[in-house]
Specification:
Length: 200
Amino acid sequence: MHPLLASVAVIATGGALLWQATDGFAALTTERARRVEVMRDMSAVPTFTVETMAGERLSLPPGDGRATVVEFIYTNCPSICQSAGAELMRLRDRLAKGPLAARVWLVSLSFDPARDTPERMAEYGHGHGADGRLWTVARPAKGDLGALLNAYGITVIPDRAGGFTHNAALHVVSPDGRLLAILDMDDVDGAENAIEKALR
């Protein structure tokens, strides 16, 4: 076979395999693949009982007609979780000014329940402006952590310095418990649109 034709055949075969592996080039990373799958499937997430920064035990999703926006954090994170808190504050400020405030619940959910006590969560929450109503900080029961992370597609890897590497995103859940969208932390417009869609 002519070298040029052989090269073209290899490139075409590689391109076809990449197309198949990346869902038509829609998912070039694991995180992107997770988001594409959610948009396609809109699967229901299980209901978990969480403990809030006020020490209350509540259902997540709440099952009371509200949409839910969930971000995953651990409170002693020195970098990304602090930025995530600032971005959720922006979303809270946007929602608080409009008609969606009573129809949505923002949750910063800790995946470090052993260290994130209600007192520590309250400190983090108050430092970022969480009021405990529109926006709260919560933790799952230790025994539910693995199933909860799996349900939302969250990867948490210890960083050997007492912290973690993890996905950072906004997860929009409909009132009937379906995971509808996963958005970048700073995509306030996208989150508001996804919430409105969830509540239709």
